[in-house]
Every structure is written in C-alpha cells, then in structure tokens.
Write a structure and sequence with these properties.
With 325 residues, the protein is α/β, with parallel strands linked by helices. Helices cover 38% and strands 18% of the residues. Helix 2 packs across helix 3 and helix 4 crosses helix 5. The structure holds ligand PBG. The site of ligand PBG has 12 residues, from helix 6.
Length: 325
C-alpha cells in the first residue's frame, strides 16, 4: 500500500475526495437590533451582522466562489406567533432583498423555521398533547407555507425548512407552486437529530427553547438509522430536491446510508455550531491545528457521501483552500 503514498503526486492522483468551495454553504446571521456587528461568544469568528453589513459579507462569499449562503434572522422582537417571520418587511425578507440587490448571482438560501422568531423558542405554534406543551404540527404547516412564499417573493433561491414538522415539504411545495415559484428548489433538513451540538447556534440565533426541548420533533440520536432513511424517503416523495443530514460529524454513518440508499439524490450535511466551537476552542488553546483539522473534517463529511456541506468555515476554508498535497 505504501507505494500509493510515497510521493505527494501519487497521493493526489489517487484521492477520491476533492474539496471544492463551490459545494460549501456559509451560514450568515443577520440581526435587526441596530447597526453594530455583534460577536457570538460561543462561536469565535462568527457574528450577528446588521443588515447594512450583509451586502459586503455576501460579496465576499461570491468572490470566494462559495456554493451559497444560508440566512438566519434575529428579529428586533419575538412573540408567541413569531410574527416577524410572516412579515414581508421582517428581518429575513429585507436581508434577502439586500443580498440579491448587491450580488444577484450569489445563491441565497433561507432557513425556514420559527424558533428564531418565537418568544418560547420552539419551532412552531404551541399546543398541547395531553398535559404536555408541544408544537402543533398542522397549524405550523400553514404558517410555513406562508413564510416560504414571503422568502420566495423577497428573492430567495432555495428554501430550506428546518423545523422537522411532518408534511412540511408537501405544504411548502404546494404554497410555492400556487404563488408562481414552481421553479424554486426545496432543501429539506430531512434527518435532523436533537441534541447539544446546536447549543452555540442557539446563542447565535437567540433561539434556546424557554422550556422543554425539541425531542418531540427532532430525531432521537439512538433511533435506528433506518428512521433517517424513512425521513428522507418521505421528504423525497413530498417533493424535496435536496435532502440533509444534521449534525454531520456524529452522523457520518447516516450520511453514508442515505448516500447508498438514494444514489443521485443531492445530499447536504450540516457541520453544525457545536462541531465548529469545539474545534475553535481547541485551536485557540493550542491543543489542535485548526486549519488541518478543518480540512480533515470537510474531507470526512464529503467522503461519507455528502455533496454539499453547510459549514461556518466555508469562507475561511475557501480563503486558504488549495488542492491537498
Ligand atoms: C432552526 C435551526 C437550528 C439549526 C439550524 N436551523 C437550531 C435548532 O434546531 O435548534 C442549528 C445549526 C447549528 O447548530 O449550527 N431550527
């Protein structure tokens, strides 16, 4: 085997994974609380951007050749219904318009969910299942349809529902088609697992649930991997164009199974906030080589079978990216 490794060019010749920024998506947080760029303490290097600074961030993503950006909004006010998410002048709709005016070619994806907009921090309208407060599935679907059309009207290129409501893709597809957006793809967070890896994001998006957790709608990490395959099959039957596994690193097995089971289906993986923060903290402490670790992580997610990676390192990795030796 070592003859395949003895020379850098032999190694490069036999590589199967080619890193390419065109397949990476940079998440951007945009806030509606003034003109300052606000650092996110748990995600060093990431910021809540004011609307005015978005065009420059978008321009940079475009110049670096990224696959696109995915937007998360922090509204000026949150309420029980998440009204900002249903307002054509809400933070995300304005953000999309700003980006599309400045960089019309940059693929602009919108995360479609309510947790950033509700005061309770859950991903939809609250109701009850017995004595238990829970997110109402079907009432939330209605709202997701409306939210998707608003994003489309603002100029979003891809709609990415992340709330794990049953039937969300059907509802969004119907709403988009009826509003004249039959051409817009849906990238569904199909197999999204519940857990602590989203912790830093929730600080970033100010979306920590005020009570309870998301385990009645996001997947159980200990569920059979086949459950993820069922989620993907359902989303595809409902019309999803791109499916997603999330988080990435703890679920490389799931990524691989989805890849094998659904060949040819575009597959995204979300290299989530907790994965980012762990590496950034270890690198800052001098315990790990950050850049080399990021390269290995991106390589492993692609090798597991993801075509697309949503990663907070998209811009950074694209900056120092060189084909590996
Ligand atoms: C919204 C959403 C979340 C993430 C992406 N979209 C948070 C959550 O489900 O709590 C997490 C992304 C990350 O951790 O990087 N529902």
């Amino acid at each position: 085997m070592r003859r395949l490794r003895y020379h850098p060019r032999v190694r490069r010749l036999v590589q199967a994974v080619q890193l390419n920024p065109a397949h990476w998506i940079q998440p951007l947080f945009v806030h509606d609380k003034g003109a300052e760029r606000r650092p996110i303490a748990s995600m060093p290097g990431q910021f809540q951007l004011p609307l005015d600074q978005l065009p420059a961030a978008a321009q940079e993503a475009e110049e670096l050749g990224l696959g696109g950006v995915i937007l998360f909004g922090i509204p000026s006010e949150k309420g029980a219904q998440g009204r900002d998410a249903l307002d054509e002048n809400g933070v995300i709709c304005r953000a999309v318009r700003r980006i599309k005016e400045a960089t019309p070619d940059l693929l602009t994806i919108t995360d479609l969910c309510f947790c950033e907009y509700t005061d309770h921090g859950h991903c939809g309208l609250l109701g009850h299942a017995g004595a238990q407060a829970t997110v109402e599935n079907d009432a939330t679907l209605e709202l997701l349809g409306k939210q998707a059309v608003l994003h489309a009207k603002a100029g979003a290129d891809v709609i990415a529902p992340s709330g794990m409501m049953d039937g969300m893709v059907t509802m969004i597809r119907q709403a988009l088609d009826a509003a004249g957006f039959a051409h817009l793809p849906i990238m569904s967070y199909s197999a999204k697992y519940s857990g602590p890896f989203y912790g830093p994001f929730r600080e970033a998006a100010e979306s920590t649930p005020r009570f309870g957790d998301r385990r009645s709608y996001q997947m159980d990490p200990a569920a059979a991997a086949e459950q993820a395959l069922r989620e993907v099959a359902l989303d595809l039957a409902e019309g999803a164009d791109i499916v997603m596994v999330k988080p990435a690193l703890a679920y490389l097995d799931v990524i691989r199974q989805v890849r094998d089971q659904f060949p040819g289906v575009p597959l995204a993986a979300y290299n989530v906030s907790g994965e980012y923060s762990m590496v950034m903290a270890a690198a800052a402490a001098g315990w790990i080589d950050g850049q080399a670790t990021i390269r290995e992580i991106l390589t492993s997610i692609h090798r597991a079978g993801a075509d697309i990676i949503i990663t907070y390192w998209a811009k950074e990795a694209a900056r120092w990216f060189q084909p590996a030796n």
